[in-house]
Amino acid sequence: MTPARILHVVSAGQVGGTERVVSYLASTSRSRPTQHAVAVFAASSDVMNLYRAGSSRVHVRGLVREHWPAFMWRSFGPRDLAWLIGVAEEEKSQIIHLHNIGGQVVGTRAALRLGLPIVRTEHSLGDYTSRARWMFASWSLRRSQAAVAVSRGLAREIVTKAPWLSTKLRVVLNGIPVPPAMPAYPDRQGDGAFRFVTVARLEPRKGLDLALEALVAVPGATLDIVGDGESRGFLEQHARALGVWGRVKFHGFTADPSAIVAHGHAALSSSREEGLGLALIEAMALGRPVIAVPVGGIPEIVRHGETGLLARARTSKDLAAVMAQAVAHPQDCRRMGTAARAFVESSLSAAAMAQAYDEIYQAALAAQDRTGG
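Predicted structure:
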């Protein structure tokens, strides 16, 4: 395999699944022929710290703003383009790998200027459901050599909305570095509560309002919410209004939420839309089953009764029903957690993800060679 030099372009204000996937992909490939560097337009120190803590080569543009005028200037202005071209030339990059809306236009422009192939990863449907975002995303996608969806469910939805992408779209499931040991499953001591844990950005797409509404009907449970974002104030008010404030704890952003997850009995997902759910995979690797609504790629990793429980539909009543089932049968949750860990080890490792991307990179380089790019 010919060594490939990849430059990931990331623009983000908060650390979420997309940002961690890039970090895992770059750091997992240290011993592989592929060489990774990351160009970061960071809107928070948390994002900068995530990549600086890794072992891959990182170039940080500095703290940037996330609002629409800043996006337009970054996309079409000369300064960020010149900086990114300089990074790519310094790294001798052969492929530009784009991951989110904030960097896709400037990343595409840099790749076109340098004559480099573009690989895009579609982590969610966000670019496909917003007219404003789709205008920029479709321009970038038509100029890319490959697009990757992080789940089969997401790929199906993408092709429905953009049938012309079917010839270049591939599926690579997100993967994580699997912890060497699985923490012990906790007993229900003290208050005897069954502890659900959610790790997510607090934004409407994650649907934490539904989780709080379902919690009302599950009196023997508590909910730990790890993450921050625009919806936090609303969710705190909602918890008070529903009368569950005493059973909910908002932890805010935590760089490493594994200790909180390990203290819980099950991971909980109530997303309105989800590409795959990296936080759920991380919880599964810690031996915790997932209780979730069946959206996006979640049914591909949460096998009902085996690695977790899936609600029949995305309603608070249906979610409460499977939450109550988990509370009533903790031994089943312990068993499903063990199975979830085994599934991550066999199918959702960072090494497997890196291998799949290596094949896509090689195909993109081969295609460029055939066309004389």
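Summary: The chain has two domains: 5-176+349-371, 194-347.
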